[in-house]
Amino acid sequence: MGESIEIGDITISVTRKDVKNVHLSVHPPDGHVTLVTPTSTRIDVARAYAITRIGWIRQQQEQLRSQAREAPRSFVGRETHYLWGRRHLLRVTELDAKPEVKLDHRTIHLQVRPGTSRDGRAKVIHAWHLKLLHGAVPPIIDKWERRIGVKVHRYFLQRMTTKWGSCNSKAGTIRLNTELVKKPRDLLEYVIVHEMVHISEPTHSPRFFALLSEHYPSWPEARRELNELPVPQLTGS
Predict the structure, then answer these.
(1) Is 44 helix (H, G, I), strand (E, B) or coil?
(2) Dist. CA 221–CA 186, nearest whole Å
(3) What are phi and psi of 36, to 5 degrees?
(4) In whole angstroms, what is the distance from residue 192 CA to residue 183 CA?
(5) pLDDT for 121-162, tens place per residue?
(6) How many whole angstroms separate alpha carbon 94 and alpha carbon 82?
(7) Hey, which bits of 96-186 come out as E strands?
(8) Given phi > 0 = left and psi -120 to 50 = alpha, else beta, which region is 17?
(9) Rounded (5°) CA angle 33-37-43
């Protein structure tokens, strides 16, 4: 079981890595706090450092709490759904045939078998989202591999509640939040570039941000826009 630090009502997950500096992060969408620390750092020293940043932690969590929240979806007709940053209306057709999803301008057409439950409809939409992401992600990776000079051996798509993406620098793999299909395409690209830079620099060190600024100068604006967009309710789909 991993280590954690309790400071009042805040729980901080601690990860020990072969790094030189301590790095503290507050992750969207729910404000989960993590602390990456050198392997030799005593837990009381890590806690003392976290206490000095408690004001910053609360400020970041408050910003995340103030974000607009998407209501859980019921997957019924005339419901609003986001795709690539744009609002679309859902149209549902019940037909005794293979379920499918089609996009027609600003309407998402969902075809399901009669009596399909809300969860069943959600699974059909989720499978469609995965298909869209699998079509969008590889060209972006290919484009940036040449620019950054790294190799992504594999990428994974996963529902996440605390991160937009993650990277295993040793394995050369990146993991992306499936919710990114609902955000503008340029923000998907930003997250991919962010994680690809981590292959060269695993931590959020000064070198990491220097590399990110070199390759993607508009990253502060992209990060701010991403974190200001509506995020899903944690109990929703």
Answers:
(1) helix
(2) 11
(3) -100, 130
(4) 13
(5) 999 999 999 999 999 999 999 999 999 999 999 999 998 876
(6) 22
(7) 100-104, 107-112, 154-158, 165-168, 173-177
(8) beta
(9) 85
CA gap 12, 7 in Å, rounded: 8
Predicted local distance difference test score (pLDDT) of residue 211:
95
Q: Which domains does the chain have, with CATH numbers?
A: 4-66 (no CATH), 79-228 (3.30.2010.10)
Q: Residue 210 and residue 199: Cα distance in Å, rounded?
A: 14
Say how far residue 181 (Cα) sits from the centre of its chain.
Answer: 10
- First CA to last CA distance, the chain: 28
Indicate left, alpha or beta for 139 from its phi (over 0: left) and psi (-120 to 50: alpha): alpha
Radius of gyration of the chain (CA): 20
pLDDT tens-digit readout, 75-103: 999 999 999 999 999 999 999 999 999 99
Query: Cα dihedral angle (232, 162, 26, 228), rounded to 10 degrees?
Result: -30
Distance CA(229)–CA(237), nearest Å, equals 17
Q: Which residues lie closer than 8 Å to 159 by C-beta, 6 or more apart?
A: 177, 178, 179
Please state, rounded to an integer, the average pLDDT across all residues of the chain: 89
Beta bridge partners of 6: 11
SS3 100: strand
